[in-house]
Amino acid sequence: xxxxxxxxITLIFAGTAHGQAFDPANVDWxxxxxxxxxxxxxxxxxxxxxxxxxxxLRGMTLGPPLVGVDLKYGDxxxxxxxxxxxxxxxxxxxxxxxxxxxxxIWNMALYVAEQRQGTTILDKNDKIEIALPAGPVETERHDFxxxxxxxxxxxxxxxxxxxxxxRILLTERMRGLRIVNxxxxxxxxxxxxxxxxxxxxxxxxxxxxxxxMLDVELHPDYAExxxxxxxxxxxxxxxxxxxxxxxxxxxxxxxxxxxxxxxRWADQQIIWQADVESYTNTSDLAAGGRLAFDxxxxxxxxxxxxDSLDIFGIQDKSLPHGKVHRVHDDGRxxxxxxxxxxxxxxxxIYTLGHRSVQGLTFNAANGELWETEMGPRGGDELNRLRKxxxxxxxxxxxxxxxxxxxxxxxxxxxxxxxxxxxxxxVVDWTPAVAISNLLFYSGDEFPQWRGNIIxxxxxxxxxxxxxxxxxxxxxxxxxxxxxxxxxxxxxxxGGELYLLLExxxxxxxxxxxxxxxxx
Length: 519
Known about the structure:
By secondary structure, the chain is of the alpha+beta class. Helices cover 14% and strands 31% of the residues.
């Protein structure tokens, strides 16, 4: 649905440019879904660049290779775009600024950067079994080994929450909640949880669906109260005007808490639920879905691009889409939430202007909340969250639509944001690595990682370690490269580091541990 939404936006621009009204009912979505999205990028590159650099980007007589080598003038998308735009005096590389529009130059730069990174827009490196490193992995600060904890998970897991007794709670998006036992075996699905629906379809290679199980988190005082928090998308049919008009189900993020008793979900309480009129039939693929607690037991949760066209609603404080929310652990609204006294605003909103928030974590060392979010084609972000701040989507982004078209906000859309009122990311990943969840490492097993961010990626299939100084990332190291889609990262009760690896051929949970004592 994300890709469908962006295609809709492109068609809106095409239609309105010719004075035509756009009607989604007139689009042949089945035919459109069979169009390889990369064809346009490849065609543009082949038309303008392949004669010199080769169709495989490995160089020709007139031009040097663009992959497999260091680029003399830099390898970021911005640096590549600058070379395309201005050329290189004294060489065969011409300036394209007077020949190509800026968006086409940026599109070609992204294509080259994506090929250098080894990713494409719909790339899924998950159709073969995951091959874990056989021996110690050497890194800058600590050597470690990767040990399999559990395998045979569903192809679409989402979150893990290690329990004090060594077991691990696991959510699978279209299946539900289950427990990974200490011997690696999997329990039956916990009965009576909110339902998870598996009647999904696909669009352009992406699984679509409504009514998914998302994140799971323990209350900070779980040992005393037993509360488990679930983030899921509540689904209903015939419950609002959109559902009745579309004659189909709609969904929206919801937070509940409960306890597990004798294999059943019990004592459920709804912690936060949106007005049913805001429920949409936009896929839960980018619904956000993360949970985090701070040191005062406030609960934070993310809602993604659940509006119909990926951009409407994100800047609207009366709607839940594209926000990070904050409530007390029992669902009460904090009196100091930033928009409590703003007429028409949802009082739970903590920050806004987010797209597809895939990671959320609290740094207990300094009291800061951080998040990660995906852009479309480029514009993945790492953000340090400040109460009431606006993070810019869809007005400010380094990404472009999946089609390669720029993300343009027309005045008639009623979406406006001054640059001075926006907060920009600590890190931008363009091209997109498909950044996922993160944590600030605080365990004892890797003392030289303490205070570092450990974050996973989906498209790039890498695990990253980021050093942070004064709110800025000063160094990044790839800990594991081209391994799998890293869906979640979590601390165990003793500070152990667990990873949830998503894979079509079989997802798994692994643990990272020191290779030898004292490393």
